[in-house]
Design brief:
794 residues, 15 strands, alpha+beta, 32 helices, four-stranded mixed β-sheet, globular
């Protein structure tokens, strides 16, 4: 082994050890860690270069590009290097003397060897290469090479802006479509997602053309937040990964000084939304610039500035508000200091016309807008409602206002829900964005209700209490009782909005958990809405808007049908019409019941589910045995209702195939016959099925809960079980209830994500409600034992 090789190996070991020592210093985070990593690598590369060249550095240099060029490395980032030379004769040998020690150190290396001309030519053909060279930084050797490389790269980049910028826009949009939005994901990719690190770099790269502005201080701060979190993701995982996993969030929050994982995630969301908003604004300016070749030449000649459409045309939109150059701006004589409603008129006009608010107009409103006098006058409230009712334009306008803190100024309670995560699989958005999406969905239903203004306010405020230790509905009611009068609503209208906030979960919870044919269910809902048809109508619309804004799992034809059925019954009671008790059977179902023979009939529904009718000679346990057979055939049960027609039990289910394809219903009927005869070991077969779904994994979740409700039904006790969903859950609970000597009259099943809420209408052997506390304790214990406290689930 040569002396050079020995020195090289020793240097590699020293670098590896020094880098590992940096990772072991928990106090070294953020920019300080990045600086230390960069300085360490720079020193080592300088030593390698000096050793490899024996001090003869003329016409050759190491240039850092990409993240290393920006001095932004994460712990396990590549060293992005270009060995630049002026036709060096032994450049391959020189490269080997540098690259091999880097590989020996274990550091990831992205490398190339180029003359300046070659590097510029490759950059002209390859967008990725061009973007990397924009961050070229001299590390070792002849500094004139790096200076020349940077100058020629930037000259070429600016000259080719008309070609390169559309490519850059397309790349950012394709990436966002493919990876998702870091502003809302519970496990965002900090680098690739919309709003992530690459999007900030795209702003910098676009600014290098002189067509748009460079990142602002706020935008650079957002970038730093993402870099800081990314560094800790690398450090904790021990590899170059960019995804902020749920299991790492507590540790990363502690390492970076955030109060908890929610505060960390909110900071990431804030940074991502700042970046996304900034990127969208830059792309609007680029796209307005691209069709104007004369403007392009003018910009390039003066080496700076930006332009857009012809700004000479000004179109009035509202008092003090005009459109100019495709943006909403303030009129020349508008004064935000003396006109406190101007802010709302600007926002409403922008949303209604689907135009962006010009950045200078936003900045001026943020600096000068006077507080809105309280209680609000009709002019302020009407402008605010116009903003809320504008449809999809509302989202982008409120996001723009929120970027400069104006939403919290109009609605101070907003501050607590800004960027707040919702840690469940059902919700697509943070709390604040969910509220705005609910407003947009409500605006689509405005013509279905008598008071669209109150519907919009109810949608905006229905989750305003989230993120606090207390129940979010109770907090929301208390806040709304203050907000509604402040907005200028009279006592009657304020009471309606408060009722919407208080009852925003009433219809879906009741429809999926209660017997809709029980008079107590109907009276309870009627009383909750103050026996007001207008409030019921508004609540119905709010329920749909809330579900659509939540995500696909929160709404379906099945759930819509249940809620419509409930609302029609409540409306009938409010009009004094008698309620028909018991499930309504179709003529075909009635004929099956009269025959009294075991049968299973399945009818497809419009949303891919099946309405399943099971008829069998009446006996205890038909419902839960049928539910178990359906689960055995890979069917998820959404609703289950049982009734008796003479000597026949009729069980009605709504089910959906777990894996997309329906079973052979003849086999389902055969297995049901075997289960009722005791020939099919349902419990054992379901346990096998469950193990196959979960591959032996066990989820350690919150323990299940059992609740008893005396007043929720006229002639039964409602036993409500809340637990993680699992294969055959309804079967296990029903079996436990039967073992306790109870008769299950009706069951309602509601599943959101991995959570199930199952309600059972039960009576004892004498047909009476369950009132004895000791008996309730035994029932609860039996149910919990049947479920298990650590149930595996699919």
């Amino acid at each position: 082994m040569s002396a050079d090789t020995t020195r090289s190996n020793a240097a590699s070991v020293d670098f590896r050890a020094a880098r590992a020592a940096l990772f072991e210093r928990p106090e070294l985070t953020g920019a300080a860690l990045r600086d230390e990593l960069t300085n360490l690598a720079d020193r080592w590369l300088g030593e390698l270069f000096a050793s490899a060249t024996d001090g003869d550095t003329e016409g050759v240099a190491i240039v850092a590009v990409g993240g290393f060029g920006r001095r932004d490395p994460a712990p396990y980032s590549d060293l992005d290097l270009v060995l630049v030379h002026r036709n060096h004769r032994d450049i391959s040998k020189l490269a080997d003397k540098i690259w091999y020690p880097i590989w020996d150190s274990g550091a990831a290396l992205d490398h190339s060897v180029r003359t300046v001309a070659e590097a510029v030519r490759v950059a002209g053909e390859d967008l990725k290469a061009a973007l990397g060279l924009l961050d070229a930084r001299h590390v070792a050797g002849d500094p004139s090479l790096c200076a020349e490389l940077r100058e020629r790269t930037y000259t070429t980049w600016r000259a080719g802006a008309a070609k390169r910028l559309p490519e850059l826009i397309a790349a950012t949009r394709e990436r966002a479509e493919r990876v998702g939005d870091a502003s809302f994901l519970l496990e965002p990719d900090l680098k690739e997602c919309r709003g992530g690190l690459r999007d900030h770099l795209a702003i910098r790269q676009a600014a290098a053309t002189w067509v748009v502005e460079a990142p602002t201080e706020t935008e650079r701060a957002a970038y730093d937040v993402l870099l800081d979190v990314r560094s800790e993701v690398h450090r904790r995982s021990g590899r170059a990964t960019e995804t902020l996993l749920l299991q790492e969030q507590d540790g990363i929050a502690a390492a970076l000084g955030y109060a908890d994982a929610d505060v960390l995630l909110a900071a990431v969301y804030r940074a991502a939304r700042t970046t996304s908003f900034a990127l969208d604004e830059r792309w609007r300016r680029v796209e307005s610039w691209l069709p104007r070749p004369q403007a392009r030449r003018r910009i390039l000649r003066r080496q700076g500035g930006s332009t857009g459409p012809d700004v000479s045309q000004r179109r009035p939109l509202a008092e003090g508000v005009v459109e100019q150059g495709g943006e909403v701006v303030l009129a020349r004589d508008a004064d935000p200091r003396s006109d406190p409603i101007l802010l709302l008129r600007v926002a409403a006009a922008a949303a209604e016309h689907e135009l962006p608010i010009a950045p200078h107009a936003l900045a001026r409103l943020a600096q000068e807008a006077a507080p809105i006098p309280e209680p609000w006058q009709a002019s302020a409230r009407n402008a605010f409602l116009a903003l809320l009712g504008a449809g999809h334009g509302t989202v982008t306008v409120i996001e723009a206002l929120d970027q400069v803190g104006l939403v919290s100024r109009v609605l101070p309670e907003w501050e607590h829900v800004r960027f707040r995560p919702q840690r469940n699989a059902v919700h697509r958005f943070t709390v604040d964005r969910h509220l705005i999406e609910a407003v947009v969905e409500a605006s689509m239903l405005a013509r279905h209700v008598a008071r669209p203004d109150l519907l919009l306010l109810g949608a905006l405020l229905h989750d305003i209490g989230k993120g606090r230790p207390e129940d979010h509905t109770d907090v929301g009611v208390a806040l709304t009782e203050v907000i509604a009068p402040r907005l200028g609503l009279d006592a009657e209208d304020s009471a309606v909005v408060v009722s919407l906030v208080r009852n925003h979960l009433l219809l879906p919870d009741t429809a999926t958990r209660r017997d809709l044919e029980d008079p107590v269910t109907i009276s309870t809902v009627a009383d909750a809405v103050g026996r007001s048809r207008i409030t019921l109508e508004l609540l119905h619309a709010l329920t749909e808007a809330d579900a659509h804004a939540t995500g696909p799992a929160a709404w379906s034809d099945w759930k819509a049908g249940l809620i419509n059925h409930l609302v029609s019954h409540v409306n009938a009671e409010l009009e004094g019409e008698p309620l028909q008790s018991g499930p309504i059977l179709t003529p075909e179902q009635s004929k099956l019941a009269e025959r009294g023979e075991l049968d299973v009939i399945a009818e497809p529904t419009s949303d891919g589910a099946y309405a399943v009718t099971v008829v069998a000679p009446d006996r205890p346990g038909v419902l839960w045995r049928a539910a178990g057979v359906l689960a055995l055939h890979r069917l998820d049960v959404h609703t289950a209702t049982a009734t008796s027609v003479g000597p026949t039990a009729v069980s009605l289910f709504t089910v959906s195939p777990r894996f997309g394809s329906a079973p052979d219903w003849r086999l389902v009927r055969d297995d049901l016959r075997a289960a009722l005869d005791g020939r099919l070991p349902l419990a054992e077969r379901l346990a096998e099925r469950e193990r196959a779904y979960t591959s032996g994994s066990v989820t350690h979740a919150a323990p299940p809960k059992v609740f008893f409700f005396d007043d929720a039904a006229e002639s039964a006790t409602v036993v409500e079980v809340r637990a993680h969903d699992a294969v055959g859950l309804l079967h296990r609970i029903g079996r436990a209830l039967e073992a306790c000597g109870l008769d299950v009259r009706t069951a309602r099943v509601s599943t959101l994500g991995a959570e199930a809420v199952d309600s059972f209408y039960v009576v004892d052997a004498n047909g009476q409600k369950i009132s004895d506390l000791a008996e309730r304790g035994r029932i609860e214990a039996a149910i919990l034992e049947a479920i298990g406290t650590e149930q595996p689930h699919g």
